[in-house]
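[Meeting: bench + compute handoff]

Bench side (C.D.) handed over the final construct sequence. Compute side (W.E.) agreed to return the predicted structure before the next meeting so the bench team could plan truncations. Sequence as handed over:
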Amino acid sequence: MKNLLALVIAAAVFVPSIANAATPESTRLPKRAHRQKRKVSAISLVKKTDEEKAEHKERGAKKKKKALSEALFVASEPRVPLATVTQARDGMSIRSVGLKGSTCGPSSKWAKRGSKWIALDAYGQPIGTALVSGFDTNGETKCRELQFGRKSGKLGEGIYVSADSNWAASKSFEWSPDDAEKKSFDAFVHTMETHFTKDGADDAKAHSRALFFTTHDADAKSENKPARQEEQEKPTNKRTHRAVVGGNLLIVARLDSDKVWRIERLIPPGKESSSEFTPVGVLDMDKDGDAEIVYHASNGWEAGDAVMTQAPTGWKDVALSAWSNRKH
């Protein structure tokens, strides 16, 4: 029994000696060093976490700024608010600023002297920069008609977009038809004008007063399809040649693969007075990759611009300038 007890005591003394021997003196750190090492690691971790938070916050701010930046568009004639493009739940949304008898938009946004605006050509490409130099206020509508002073480039006769937004012009949708396509288009429009107007066809050749462009066909999505199913479906890549032409009628037409022009939308003249329509621009206002059409309408005593976009059911108006005499 005494021999066994002596053996246990010897083992207890021997094992710590082995443990101490297994750890070289150079690798053992005093408790203070261990505490210092843990403190440095903690500081590094906090610093890294703060940097990550700051970086995440900056990314979020940039994303928010990009999403919430509002693009303002001024009509061609008269130069009053036409539309705003803002972030919506399902993408960018085009909306009217005001209608006759309602609002013309806050003057702090739309009629601020010295504010900068970008002039766009008929296909939405920047051609110049202008500053608001003044305005006239209409007594009936209280809308302020802007007066622009050129800062650089050209002033242009089309629409303007606010320079302080993050809106940027997309690639031009312009398409140049060949002589045969122009000739068939002239004949097609001549037939429509002869049929729908009491004054007959316009003297000017249709192709000389039209805007020709190429854009995607609208996706024919069923309202009964679940949203998840729609998201999984690939959008069509089919692109179609189209034209919009004014005069006594406004016609939007497409050129099919059989080289035949077909109507996609026709706005007839007014019943009580003569109407005059002019295509103003074909451009991607809401940055969805497809074109919107801006056109000018006048009935002799009122005038304004309208924006139409392509839907599965056809082209429809989505915004009207404050002086427009037409309704959605």
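W.E. noted at the follow-up: The longest strand covers residues 126-137. C.D. will use this when planning the next construct.
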